[in-house]
Write a structure and sequence with these properties.
By secondary structure, the protein is mainly beta. The chain contains 6 helices and 39 strands.
Length: 544
């Protein structure tokens, strides 16, 4: 596929050993469509606002939820995403005491909680050609601007309900869409036209036999136009005060020195040094081990090229604001004093400051999160990019006890009696980026529903946010992006299913998807969950 010339982040030059995947199957127009059959006047009309782009389904609790995706429709400076969602009636009538599903458990993305947004920020648009993520627009509260807010509370079984969300209008003519619990839908067209109404049609397209998203960007099929459900007001684009478009970041670290983290996009390199390896508790005096971390940071900065380096200290929120501010400034100054002896001051002038506790990258409610927040960040902005991202060639770290191939998977304990099997049978490439769907199934299948432990929840011990791609001694995290809250940086976002659903029916399989940076064309990849979780090896990469 031809790719237009553009400035890109340097690709990872990797030779890996693992894979997984959610199949995306291209569709064609209906067989009885005269244009598809080659009529005398084959005039393509292109997608309309009512064209079904893709359908798919995801497992949650006692049921599955089917999702139908329509094109993105431009309206001034914004585009509107339209989705229809339908909860499938549970096979076990006793599984539900009501005729509706609490749909917040289906799509809720807990990473939005510190942003005061509703349960819809899991729906993200990706421009993987430009390495950008489009986040749902918010109003001045801030709350997500959209239609279908009641779906976060109830979703009647068997009745489609419409969700509409606003985003900034993109430069691209099509974008990928992350649908929580379903996967990544590629090639969602951006079109001109009238924004669809806020009510779902009476019927919607059926999902693919295997439940994976089925795409049809040029299909002429449309859903029945008759609306269903309660009447609603159209989406209010006039209430939008922010529609974030954020660069996607590649984040890596060496497994032997995890306190040195490298985050990079097309314009910026940030090297984060963990304060716990630099300083003693509540101290700004460098430890004996600090020089190793700072030396490694200097190597990474020099790889990128000359430019101004911002040296910023950060703390957790344990002490009071004033004390944290002073400590962050003192620690930044200590690191800068050593950097000044190692870097050419003419090529790498240093600007030193402290941010105190104001810019966390993780929750301060857990020891692991507070440890991540205690750091000194070195940020270099420069247009000069390296030819290839350096990858540590040292051996892999020791394999954890729970290690298996992607096809075989590993068995993990649940919160109750049944176990569950985690597999990654295949991965695939989407515009050069690696997409890995994980499959989670109660084990033995069909015994009873499984309740996943907090290990799968939105904490620093998450499966999704803590899964890494291993290449020798280098760990590569899923694509990340900065999130803001009332003008200040909040925790980093992950291009993944952040909030893994807590229950899976006995006879069902849930899919949770993770997207990694561009990797070239590896034959296979290897994934591991940090903190002694588990490792999946020999995951083949489908490049078809």
């Amino acid at each position: 596929m031809h790719r237009p010339a553009r400035t890109r982040r340097a690709r990872l030059a990797l030779v890996l050993a693992v894979t997984t995947a959610l199949t995306l199957t291209a569709c064609t127009a209906d067989a009885d469509d005269p244009d598809a059959a080659g009529s005398a006047s084959p005039t393509p009309t292109g997608p309309t606002p009512q064209t079904v782009v893709a359908t798919g389904s995801g497992a949650t609790g006692y049921t599955r939820v089917e999702t139908t995706v329509y094109p993105l429709v431009r309206s001034g400076e914004h585009v509107v995403l339209t989705l229809d969602v339908t909860a499938v009636t549970p096979s076990d009538a006793e599984a539900s005491d009501d005729d509706r599903l609490f749909a917040g458990t289906v799509f809720w993305d807990a990473s939005e909680a510190p942003l005061d947004r509703q349960g819809s920020t899991g729906f993200r648009l990706l421009d993987l050609e430009r390495d950008l993520v489009y986040l749902p627009a918010v109003d001045d509260e801030p709350r997500t601007v959209g239609v279908g807010n009641e779906w976060a509370y109830e979703l009647p079984f068997g009745v489609p309900r419409r969700i509409q969300l606003a985003y900034a209008a993109p430069e691209a003519d099509e974008l990928a869409l992350v649908v929580p619990g379903v996967g990544v839908v590629p090639d969602v067209p951006v079109i001109d036209g009238e924004v669809p109404g806020p009510q779902a049609p009476a019927t919607s397209e059926q999902d693919a036999p295997d439940g994976s998203p089925t795409t049809s960007a040029t299909s002429s099929r449309t859903s029945t136009p008759e609306p269903t459900g309660p009447e609603r007001e159209p989406i209010d684009l006039g209430s939008v005060v922010a529609a974030d478009v954020v660069p996607l970041t590649t984040s890596t670290f060496e497994t032997e020195t995890p306190d040195v983290r490298r985050d990079e996009d097309v314009e910026r390199l940030t090297v984060a040094l963990g304060s716990d390896v630099l300083f003693a508790s509540e101290s700004a005096e460098l430890s004996p081990e600090a020089r190793v971390a700072i030396d490694r940071a200097v190597v990474l900065l020099r790889e990128r090229g000359a430019g101004q380096v911002q040296v910023v200290g950060h703390t957790d929120s344990v002490a009071d604001d004033a004390s944290n501010q002073v400590l962050s400034e003192q620690r930044a100054a200590s690191v800068a004093a050593v950097l000044g002896t190692l870097l050419d001051p003419a090529g790498y002038p240093l600007v030193v400051s402290g941010a105190g506790e104001r810019q966390p990258v993780a929750t301060n409610d857990s020891p692991e999160g507070r440890q991540q927040n205690r750091r000194v960040e070195l940020t270099l902005e420069t247009e000069r990019l390296v030819e290839a991202l350096a990858v540590d060639e040292r051996p892999l770290p020791p394999a954890p006890k729970r290690t298996g191939t992607g096809a075989e998977g590993v068995l993990l304990d649940s919160a109750e009696d049944p176990e569950y099997l985690v597999r990654a049978p295949r991965a695939y490439l989407l515009d050069g980026h690696l997409v890995v769907p994980f499959e989670v199934t109660p084990y033995p299948p069909g015994t009873q529903q499984v309740s996943l432990p907090a290990y799968f929840g939105p904490t620093p011990g998450d499966l999704m946010t803590n899964v890494v791609l291993l290449q020798g001694g280098t760990a590569i995290r899923p694509l990340q992006y900065a999130q803001t809250h009332r003008g200040e940086l909040a925790s980093a976002g992950c291009v993944c299913d952040v909030d893994v659903k807590q229950q899976i029916a006995a006879d069902d399989t849930a899919t949770f998807t993770v997207v990694f940076p561009e990797l070239g064309t590896p034959e296979a990849v290897m994934l591991q969950v940090l903190g002694g979780g588990f490792r999946l090896t020999d995951i083949p990469v489908d490049r078809s």
